[in-house]
Structure formats: C-alpha cells, structure tokens
Amino acid sequence: MEVKQRIDELDWPQIAAGLDNKGYAQVKGVLTSDECEELKAGYANEQRYRKTVVMERHNYGKGEYKYFAYPLPALIQQLRESVYPHLAPVANNWMLQLNKEHAFPGSLDNLIALCHQQGQVKPTALILKYEQGGYNAMHQDLYGEVFFPMQLVFILDEPGKDYEGGEFVLTEQKPREQSRAIVLKPGKGDMLIFTTSFRPAKGLRGYHRVNMKHGVSELTEGKRHSMGIIFHDAK
Ligand SMILES: O=C(O)CCC(=O)C(=O)O
Ligand SMILES: [Fe+2]
After folding, report:
1. pLDDT tens across 216-232, in order?
2. Residue 208: helix, strand or coil by DSSP?
3. What are the UniProt keywords, alphabetically (predicted)?
4. 3-230: which CATH topology?
5. Looking at ligand 1, which atom is closest to the CA of residue 168?
6. DSSP, res 24
7. pTM of the entire structure?
8. Cα 49 to averaged position of ligand 2 atoms, centre (Å)
9. Is the CB of 128 under 6 A from ligand 1?
10. Domain map of the chain by residue range?
11. Per-residue b/e over 77-108, b at no fewer than 16 CB within 10 Å?
12. Is the ipTM of this complex over 0.95?
C-alpha cells in the first residue's frame, strides 16, 4: 500500500489521545520488513548523507548516526509529508493550552518555509546504528528557533532476535518534580511518535508544561538500527 494511504488510515484520534495524555504514541507495523531492510542496506551508501556523527566524540552516547541529505529518499519524504498534517492540529492545540500565540502551518512545505526564513535549511532525518554496549544519552532534538513539538522514530531491527536491551526511553519532568522514566519496547517496523521538547499536562489549575527527553538504553547484545524523522530543518 502507498505510504500516504497507509498513514492516512491509521487511527489518528487514538494516536492524538496518546500524545495528549502521555506525550507519546506507539504505532505497530508501519514499515514492512523489506522497507526496514532497504533503509539498513543504504547505511553504507555515503552519497545519501550530509553528515556522520560518531556519538562518543560528543558524549552523546555510543553508536553512530548519519543525517540524510536532500532530496530525502522517497520513503522518508513520503512519511515526513504524510504524517505531519495529522500532527499539526495536535501541536496547535498544545500551543493554545500553554497560552502560546504560535500556530504551526497545516502542511510540511509551509513549516519548511518557516525554517528557511530562520536560516534552518539542513535536513534532520537520520539513521542510527548501535552495537553491543551502545546507547543514546537523554536529549532533545532542537536545531534552531523553529521547532515542531513532536517527532518520529522507526525501529529497523527486531528486539529479542537482532538485539537485546536497547529500549527506547523517555523522561518527563513536571515543574518542581523529579523526572519519571517511560520505557518502550517497539518492534521492527513500529513507529513511535513522541514529544520533542515539551507538552501541556492538565493539573488542578489549568495546563502546565511537561518537559520530555528521549534516549536509548544500553544494548546488551546484537545490533540495533533506527530511522528518525524530525519535522524542522537545522541551522
Ligand atoms: O534510536 C532511537 O530509537 C532514538 C533515535 C533518536 O534519538 C532520534 O531519532 O531522534
Ligand atoms: Fe533524538
């Protein structure tokens, strides 16, 4: 099935409820096994990428990732374009609840135009590879003034078969509280949608801001690849 149709047919009201209530949503089986394999097979094809980052060198964790160059591979471009319009209303609702004037445009093209106006012109979609002992330190993917508050990650290997450990970890931190960890174990082909920076949470007196970070726990065995889609471009 075409990517756009596959995405449009997901249960968006349920996904939006997960994002509103918990700051993330796990969607099973969005990519086929073949699509996961094709993305991994392209890892060695340097022409596809604009930059490689060895995570240890920056204390980002242990592993490696590569940012795709424009034009993005068709699969990634289609995912980025077709998921965005379903998330923009959720993001706009968040901004309203947090009393922010900001409204995100309804289409990815217009978000990218806003990024360009701020000098954010580099693509941020990436592919990551971790081996035994690898991990990704807790972080937020912000690359300039324009940032969309949700992003995607697709898991390209099968936990329990291709690797052990390597769980996807989120922390959420409410004002004047300690952080709480959320540990997810997505399967191969699953899509996670999660909060990039902050989201509103309902308290006794209206909505307050909850900060979120994400990372990956240590791989105890095997190899784990993932593909991330961030909607804003980078400086
Ligand atoms: O490997 C992962 O699951 C997390 C990747 C990540 O940090 C990202 O896509 O922004
Ligand atoms: Fe990230």
Report:
1. 999 999 999 999 999 99
2. strand
3. Iron, Metal-binding, Oxidoreductase
4. Jelly Rolls (2.60.120)
5. 3
6. E
7. 0.98
8. 17
9. yes
10. 3-230
11. bbbbbbbbeebbebbbebeebbeeeeebeeeb
12. yes
